[in-house]
Amino acid sequence: MKSDISVSAGTNESAFKALMGQAGVELQGKRRFSDGSVEISVDESFLHNGRQYYVEIDSANIAKLLVGQYVLLNELILPADTAPFFLVVHYYKTYEPMRTVKNLHFINQRLFAGAGIEFAVLHKSQLEGGFSSVDELLAMSHRASA
User: Fold this and answer.
1) 13 domain-assigned
2) DSSP secondary-structure letter at 83?
3) CA within 13 Å, CB half, 33
4) What is the CATH number of the domain that holds 70?
5) Which residues of 37-46 are buried (b: 16+ CB within 10 A; e: fewer)?
6) Rounded to the nearest 5°, which phi and psi values hold at 34?
7) Which residue segment(s) compose the domain that 91 sits in?
8) Smallest Cα–Cα separation from 138: which of 44, 27, 40, 20?
9) Per-residue pLDDT tens over the stretch 84-134
10) What share of the chain is helix, strand, coil (3-state, %, to 5)?
11) Is residue 129 part of a domain?
């Protein structure tokens, strides 16, 4: 049976890096956050207009893991961090990004009273036409309604 996974996670991360480079975005690399024995990481990060972006490249249809990651990021990112923003990019071929938006919005409302880290979700198909800036990239993303 043929898988819907686009290609390996490393290949997808490389493709994302190349797209960001074409848009002139200087990536800062993987970031790890921990407290004692609890640790979580994101695949990529970058600073834009004074805001720190944390990017997760989802290659395997793991929406439920993204929810756990979002919870841990909200708990482990230092309050001094500059307006953190969680950006999810799905590379799974048939994935519907609004599923992740709904899950993260639910957690943000229920656990963080709407004050959790702001987030947005993209699918790789949205990136195929390219983009020229972070602002254009974010304008293409899916977000929760208030």
Assistant:
1) yes
2) S
3) 20
4) 3.40.1350
5) eeebebbbbb
6) -150, 160
7) 9-140
8) 20
9) 999 999 888 778 888 899 999 999 999 999 999 999 998 888 888 888 888
10) 40, 25, 35
11) yes
